[in-house]
Design brief:
elongated; about 60% strand; mainly beta; four-stranded antiparallel sheet; about 120 residues; seven-stranded mixed sheet
Length: about 120
């Protein structure tokens, strides 16, 4: 019933920029925390950025380069990625804590992922 769909991934040159979007749809009453994770081949999935309660936080490796934002009217979270490096190459996943109509507790949902590849 609730689905998160990422978009905006692709191939970019090192030093370039990319903006990822993640739109939630379905029987949504409200959305709490939202975030972005990434997973590179052979690596564990890591938290990249979160936004909740008016606050944002980032993994150290992207601080000063990435910015997370959200548009609650569109149920969408964004990840602006600047000064991209080859080590940023990964599949990026969004998640969101969603309160559904008729549900007692919010539920954490994940998107399917979008590939970001940064070439040297």
């Amino acid at each position: 019933q609730v689905q998160l769909v990422e978009s905006g991934g692709g191939l970019v040159q090192a030093g370039g920029s990319l903006r990822l979007s993640c739109a939630a749809s379905g029987s949504i009453v409200s959305i709490g925390a939202m975030g972005w994770y990434r997973q590179a081949p052979g690596k564990q999935r890591e938290l990249v950025a979160t936004i909740a309660g008016g606050s944002t936080n980032y993994v150290d490796s992207v601080k000063g380069r990435f910015a997370i934002s959200r548009d609650d009217a569109k149920n969408t979270v964004y990840l602006q990625m600047n000064s991209l490096k080859p080590e940023d190459t990964a599949v990026y996943y969004c998640n969101a804590r969603v309160r559904r109509s008729g549900a007692f507790q919010p539920t954490l949902y994940w998107g399917q992922g979008t590939q970001v590849t940064v070439s040297s």
